[in-house]
Write a structure and sequence with these properties.
Mean pLDDT: 78
CATH architecture: 3-Layer(aba) Sandwich
Structural class: alpha/beta
CATH superfamily: Vaccinia Virus protein VP39
Number of domains: 1
Distance between the termini: 36 Å
CATH class: Alpha Beta
Oligomer: single chain
Number of helices: 13
Order of helices and strands: HHHHHEHEHEEHEHHEHEHHE
Largest sheet: 8 strands, mixed
CATH topology: Rossmann fold
Radius of gyration: 18 Å
Number of strands: 8
Low-confidence stretches: 25-54, 63-68
Length: 286
């Protein structure tokens, strides 16, 4: 049986191939799309649509926008400063890395970390087209970040942490690589309250950024356990019953029965936290 990681790699690899070839999705994508199925998803998926304004879209290669499979716009909320070093966990086609590189400027650095070869190839293509020199894409897993301790000012991520099967390790790794005073500033899908077991157990919905989402207070607890403070979760989009129908249709579930039960339970949110200023080693403030 395939693991969560293998399924995520397969789905995101296919998404990257679709973007690079211009294949898009079937005509009925709006009835069964998930947030990781290709360039057409951004036009109809309630999670991935309308995340970047026209000004941001105009700054970047078209394929970087097409491969945007996130649930928010972390670069717009992270308050990046010139000269900072930024790491994007699960960087995909590179849109948030490229936007971050522009904000931190030539004296800063923007890293993107992804485990999928096809996405990394697409990101490198987008980097070349952007002409930005302060960008580096790394191959690896967000549970094992290939960067030294205390090396990053800001960690961003866009609807990726919820896909991990070991979120506790992701938080600990993020804490490890951040400098003292460093900021955790990610967009993610969050759950408020109980969710039907049928939704939780569906692998397809996990890869679609729904089933793997953490409950709000569990997210706070994991960040605190890793050593973070100043934790805040700000909802950016709360999904309606019609959005829920789009998530669930085509997944072999009883949509009419389940949709009312997930009404307003899922939301995209901006999650902020900070590594304490006096903390210079993993676990020093747990």
């Amino acid at each position: 049986m395939s693991t969560i990681k293998e399924i995520v790699q397969e789905k995101y690899g296919e998404a990257a191939r679709r973007v690079r070839t211009g294949a898009g999705l079937p005509a009925d994508c709006c009835s069964k799309t998930s947030c990781c199925e290709g360039e057409a998803s951004a036009s109809c998926d309630p999670i991935t649509s309308d995340l970047y304004d026209a000004g941001q879209a105009g700054e970047l290669p078209e394929k970087a926008i097409a491969a945007s499979l996130g649930c928010g716009n972390p670069t717009a909320l992270a308050e990046l400063k010139p000269g900072e070093t930024v790491l994007d966990l699960g960087s995909g086609g590179g849109i948030d890395v490229l936007l971050s590189a522009k904000r931190v400027g030539p004296t800063g650095k923007a890293y993107g970390l992804d485990m999928t070869d096809e996405m990394l190839a697409l990101a490198e293509e987008n980097k070349r087209k952007s002409g930005l020199a302060n960008v580096e894409f790394l191959k690896g897993e967000i549970e094992n970040i290939p960067l030294p301790d205390n090396s990053v000012d800001v960690i961003i991520s866009n609807c990726v942490i919820n896909l991990s099967g070991d979120k506790d390790r992701v938080m600990r790794e993020a804490f490890r690589v951040l400098k003292p005073g460093g900021r955790f500033a990610v967009s993610d899908v969050i759950v408020r309250g109980e969710v039907p077991a049928e939704v939780r157990k569906s692998m397809e919905l996990w890869v679609g950024c729904i089933a793997g989402a953490l409950e709000e207070m569990d997210y706070v607890k994991l960040l605190a356990k890793a050593g973070f403070d100043a934790i805040d979760i700000e909802p950016t989009r709360i999904y309606s019953i019609e959005d829920a129908r789009q998530f669930l249709t085509g997944e072999g579930l009883d949509v009419d029965a389940i949709a009312p039960l997930v009404q307003d339970k899922f939301m995209s949110a901006f999650v902020r936290a900070q590594k304490p200023v006096g903390c210079c080693a993993p676990g020093c403030c747990s």
